[in-house]
Amino acid sequence: MKINHTLTPSDLLPKITKLWEVSAAKIHTLQKEYDHSKGSPVFTWEGKYTTRGWTEWTQGFEFGSEILQFDATGDESFLKAGKENTVKYMAPHVSHFGVHDHGFNNVSTYGNLLRLMNEGRIPENEWERNFYELALKLSGASQARRWTKIFDGEGYIYSFNGPQSLFADTIRSLRALAVGYQLGHPLMEEGDKAISLLDRLVQHARTTSRFTIFYGEGRDAFDVRGRTAHESLFNLNDGNFRAPNSQQGFSPFTTWTRGLAWCIAGYPEELEFLKTLSDEELAPYGGREDIEGFMLKSAKAVCDFYIENTSLDGIPYWDTGAPNLHKLGDYTQFNADPHNDIESVDSSAAAIAAQGLIRLGIYLGDEGKDYYQAGLTVLNTLFDEPYLSTDPSHHGLILHSNYHLPNGWDRVPEGRKIACDESCMWGDYHAREVALYVQRLANNDPYYKFYI
Questions:
Q1: Rounded distance between C-alpha atoms, residue 208 and residue 213, angstroms
Q2: Domain map of the chain by residue range?
Q3: Residue ranges for the chain with pLDDT beneath 50
Q4: End-to-end CA distance of the chain, in Å?
Q5: Alpha helix (H) ranges present in 52-187?
Q6: What is the pTM of this model?
């Protein structure tokens, strides 16, 4: 990536203003045209949001987008819709024991509403506050319940694939455990055993750091610093790590860039969260120096890898080892082309990663200037055409994302050879979230954060 070292958050405000204008129309269109009896909207097909059965992990992004739209613009109609839809649709997600996605669904809805109340953006109401807090407490405990112990007594939140499976994605879903912990809630198990949500958060983050992220330390023949495996597999009989794997990437030994992006976003915001805790709170789980140490090591590694392996303008291809990517030549030396005929880009990975890059830059201060500027560089590309979707008939906000290329789930338009021109719910949500984040930075508004 060629980092633009002169960009400021204020420089992006014209593009962000246009994004919110386009976003408002997209949300209104989806409200009018989408049939929720078919399930949660996941990605677009010929420009129309449709569902795809795997797990219910995107509905919180749909209604969370309404809440973010209100937050950014003050339009009360979006707040009303976000509140009503959260009450109407989100309760099953709070108690959903079958997914690793609580931080996606519930912090994006109940969490954003609680944050707005804490900021004084919506009126204080005791029962409304209790409703949001109860949902977040139960969501954090439900997420923490999906637990696999490994050989050394630590463990991880297992993915929907089963208890043998650790996903890179879940590092960003840890926000559910963080909020539940801050609200004073434990996970209660047999015999009234209280399990700390902070303990499970730290253990999962540490296990992900150890087995999902590579550091160029000779772990295997493909150990490149900052590379990530989408999935890590463990032997349930003895708890030992067995192999890297990939569900949505090309192979276990290449880097699926959206999995990389989840780590880029997840570790910096957990580092920010740790600042709110006392040394005494962290001492039972390894102590501040150890916990912040491994998280920072992971965050720097994945952010450096993204910068080094992304196109000149900051938009990544879907996998850095995609089988035909070599046919493009050294793709890091020119801007990404979403309409090439060789390999797809993934704009959703860019939306997710940009926020993590900026957060890490702010966390590190002077040492993090490159990360901060890299995040702004990504957004300077993403918040403009050909990525910003200005066609009013298209449901999506950010074009050229993909869901599951190995499964063949993504649409290849007529006359093209690769998937392009479509949007996804997580890409649209995270574009809105990072737009709000940067808008607040530019306007010196309260710092946007998930934690209390």
A1: 7
A2: 9-443
A3: none
A4: 34
A5: 59-73, 76-89, 91-94, 102-105, 112-118, 126-145, 170-173, 175-182
A6: 0.98
